[in-house]
Write a structure and sequence with these properties.
about 230 residues; TIM Barrel; globular; alpha/beta
């Protein structure tokens, strides 16, 4: 049986300061690697954003969405589904948010000041989904490990960008202990030699289709795929 592979954690150079691959190029990389789709999750304004801070809110949001829009445009040409998400940073603890759009962001100009609890409430109120990204990442810039078991829908148990296997192991055990879905992402910023994927038995129609399938447990994980360049 063929599986349809999706990237759940991906950055573009248009919106993430730490990425050096454009949205268009990311789409082409993943199409070549055999994926059915990608979710663009650029760093939001309270994270490592490439968007200037001294612009009006709506202009900042428009610039933030450029990587996603360029990836989507290319995806439509080459046959790759491209969905929108973003990575929200709370004092170096990060969350992947799915199921919302640019208009939702534009309508919440105060969101960079939200606590995790406020983010979770507002995301859920409007039908979104929140995943704790790489919860046990060990890096110099991570202030401390902060866990929010009552304010996440899933855990990114496997992340290619983690510095050690123990980070993934802890994340998986944590997800099991709070009984939430375990996801896998690459945290793609450039031409990573290995990638993770969340796999489904059919193509997904939308980001909400993705969320529904994850909630229902209708997915599997594909880990450490070597990428042909």
């Amino acid at each position: 049986m063929s599986l349809f592979l999706y990237e759940t954690h991906l950055h573009t150079s248009e919106a993430s300061a730490c990425a050096n691959v454009s949205g268009r190029e990311q789409a082409r990389i993943y199409k070549k690697a055999g994926y059915a789709g990608i979710i663009v999750t650029d760093h939001f304004f309270n994270g490592n954003t490439a968007v200037p801070h001294n612009l009006p809110w709506e202009k900042r949001v428009d610039l933030f969405c450029k990587g996603y829009e360029n990836a989507k445009k290319e995806g439509e040409k080459i046959g790759l589904s491209v969905f929108f998400g973003f990575e929200f940073n709370y004092r170096t603890t990060e969350f992947l948010v799915y199921g919302l759009d640019s208009e939702w962001i534009k309508s919440h100009p105060d969101m960079t000041s939200w606590s995790v609890e406020e983010l979770y409430y507002n995301v859920h109120k409007d039908g979104g989904y929140m995943v704790h990204a790489h919860p046990f990442r060990d890096r110099f810039y991570v202030e401390k490990i902060r866990l929010f078991p009552e304010h996440v829908d899933a855990i990114e148990g496997y992340n290619v960008g983690n510095a050690s296997q123990s980070c993934d192991n802890k994340a998986v055990e944590y997800a099991k202990s709070i009984n939430v879905p375990i996801l896998a992402g690459t945290d793609a910023h450039w031409h990573e030699p290995k990638r993770n994927a969340v796999a489904f038995e059919r193509p997904l129609e939308s980001i909400h289709d993705f969320i529904d399938c994850v909630k229902a447990g209708k997915y599997s994980l594909v880990l450490d795929m070597k990428l042909e360049r």
